[in-house]
Amino acid sequence: MSGNLPDDLFRSVLFTDLYELAMGQAYLAEQMDQQAVFELSFRRMPAGRNYLVAAGLDDVLDYLEHLRVTENDLAYLREKLHFTDSFLERLRHFRFTGDVLAIPEGTPVFPGEPLVQVVAPIFEAQLLETFVLNQVHLQTLAASKAARVITAAAGRQVIEFGARRAHGTDAALKVARCSYLVGAAGTSLVLAGKIYGIPLFGTMAHSYIQAHKDEAGAFAEFARMYPQTTLLVDTYDTLQGVQKVIDLGRTLGNAFRVHAVRLDSGDIGALAKQTRAMLDRAGLQHVQIFASSELDEYEIARLIQSAAPIDAFGVGTRLAVIQDAPHIDMAYKLVEYAGEPRMKLSADKIVYPGRKQVFRKSENGRIVGDTVGRYEEKLEGELLLQVVMRAGKRLPAGNVSLEDARRYAIDQNKRLPEWLLSLDQSETPYPVAISEGLSLELDSVRQLLRPG
Amino acid sequence: MSGNLPDDLFRSVLFTDLYELAMGQAYLAEQMDQQAVFELSFRRMPAGRNYLVAAGLDDVLDYLEHLRVTENDLAYLREKLHFTDSFLERLRHFRFTGDVLAIPEGTPVFPGEPLVQVVAPIFEAQLLETFVLNQVHLQTLAASKAARVITAAAGRQVIEFGARRAHGTDAALKVARCSYLVGAAGTSLVLAGKIYGIPLFGTMAHSYIQAHKDEAGAFAEFARMYPQTTLLVDTYDTLQGVQKVIDLGRTLGNAFRVHAVRLDSGDIGALAKQTRAMLDRAGLQHVQIFASSELDEYEIARLIQSAAPIDAFGVGTRLAVIQDAPHIDMAYKLVEYAGEPRMKLSADKIVYPGRKQVFRKSENGRIVGDTVGRYEEKLEGELLLQVVMRAGKRLPAGNVSLEDARRYAIDQNKRLPEWLLSLDQSETPYPVAISEGLSLELDSVRQLLRPG
User: Fold this and answer.
1) What ipTM goes with this model?
2) What is the CATH number of the domain that holds A228?
């Protein structure tokens, strides 16, 4: 069997759930092609979180601009899934022609706020549900987790190291991207460096040390090749490894330029203190300490709390898989069709009807509360949903470089009130109100739909 | 910014951590190019698991066969990362020329057992670490979670529905693949259907119902287009939705061919019983009940325990993100270089030195215990590690169709002892012994390495 994946995987119309196509064919047969509004939002804040950071929009817009179906795809749909010729003809010429509004990447977001709003003929808006959710769900979770790690590191450098444990190749790239978006210094993943222009970091692996006859020789060779490298000292015994770095410094004298030692196992806090003392005694105050090994925001906060002299953190697995909140109940829901508000009433899953806007108020440079209102309402506060795509083409607001998005995200983080930055869930959530207009809309639509 | 991803993403040499390339350049400069053996294994069973199911090998072998570097990649490495010309020339002609041994996809595996063993010049074997771990980690976790879901469903159909919440596009595809591997009936993700030949399933979304003037009309339209469809009944009120399906049955008479109703919210167990009773009273005994809504192996077991009359399950988010075990401490470690066994001694992270084999014993058709021994040892039991690639070319053992792998995986599951199939962690783990030969090897290598 070939595991070959198609070249155009990332823009394939087939990255969709079967029912989207089945409904599309039904809409076509029923001549239902009026404008729909779908909104993507999440219902509840995951345990332990006080805010999430919106991300994933750039990939969504890229997908919408380039979304295509190949002849090969059409053949599959015809032969294996028996779609009708008229539907396949419609699909062959498929282009996304709608508008997209969105909250910019890097903005703090809260339950019930539409992160993305798609305004398009119903078939177009429906078809892209799977991809939009897949990307915004992952990237928002990753950016949110990374933001917490950055907060915990309190100004120390954070490098994303998780490619090997992220869930697949796409997640590895997107976790690197989202970590950088919210302030990580860079990533170890070379492909992410190339695609996104993210700074790359790398040290050495235990295998390099092991492949050499002895650890001191491995250090000497690596430092000769890469004078300003970071040396991994825990392959056999951490403190003896540190001693070998010090010995190398004595041997090389002024030529010794090693930047840091890396601790990757054991009691990192205690080892960092012992390592710092040894380096300082040897006159190597400029050699930094880089720590990795099952780190996350909690462990980093604990290390800093205990005054561990660590200069930079490599954060891998727990960030890459978003260990404590790997999913949220994010959904993409129809809120308007043919100019009329729509909603469903399923138990516990109510979504407010009609097209919305989010209004955010600030005081003294900090955000203090949001209101979710009807799109056409005029309420106080900054409008969070911006038009990023019109008639299938990106507008400047939807064409933001990663560097610009990163500056914006870091600035947005500074606008969060102090109590939201705690790693623990605050007792009172950030206030998100429903406008009177939207409440009235809910009542009136519910009245219409209430069965019996 | 463009989120464009390169066409050859899945076979890019750059899907690697920077240090792999840095070490590669150092090995080249040091003229270290002897044969290395790396082994991929996991150290501990995740909480709540009694076995894992090996998966991901097919993508690893595909990668190794097709791994290429483009001129564009080389330019990036030269201009941005300042690799040397001699190293880049070596990389330009990079082909994987080594051997791979592996435990076949679908085989139950336990801590300390090498799932993949790579025998190649050290640079080649080192470079692929990131991709191999990325794929085998995700796919083994996904196959293992899906196997538990299938066990819990006790013969009822399970359909994988998680693409929208899987971590990225690659994970969505791989979760669909691994679920099918261990016995799921199919997936909702069209691209997975096309790439892997997996049966596709789909019903309808709430938005389809909402876009219509009334639910009964939506049901009638959809059933006209797709007579044997599954109708989603919980958009407004589940039991009233069921009543509308019954009414449609009365209207259509013999032309009524609807296959199932789908419950997607509320108390699924209670609603399934009420729905079954209503359908049966209406003479619709043949209409099945399909359940979704935050299902996993625990919830499915609970539903079946309570005798909920559910015929098939759609399992999404919790499977797709492998909610209760999103990562394991899987590592790819050097165990031999230039014919000599290697190991590291880092605290809590000991890996036995030297090339290994796994010997598995069975009694009465059930597996009863494994021994991890030296590769050349002759011990009792079936040899789990098989040669799947030789000199960079797949052998028949490494070229297994997904259908064949699925039959094998389902058969392997039947060979698990009953106590391992419990959803709770058993008090005694499955026995994995270390051979006397391997123990002696550990002692002798440790003696050599023990510092001081």
Assistant:
1) 0.96
2) 3.20.20.70
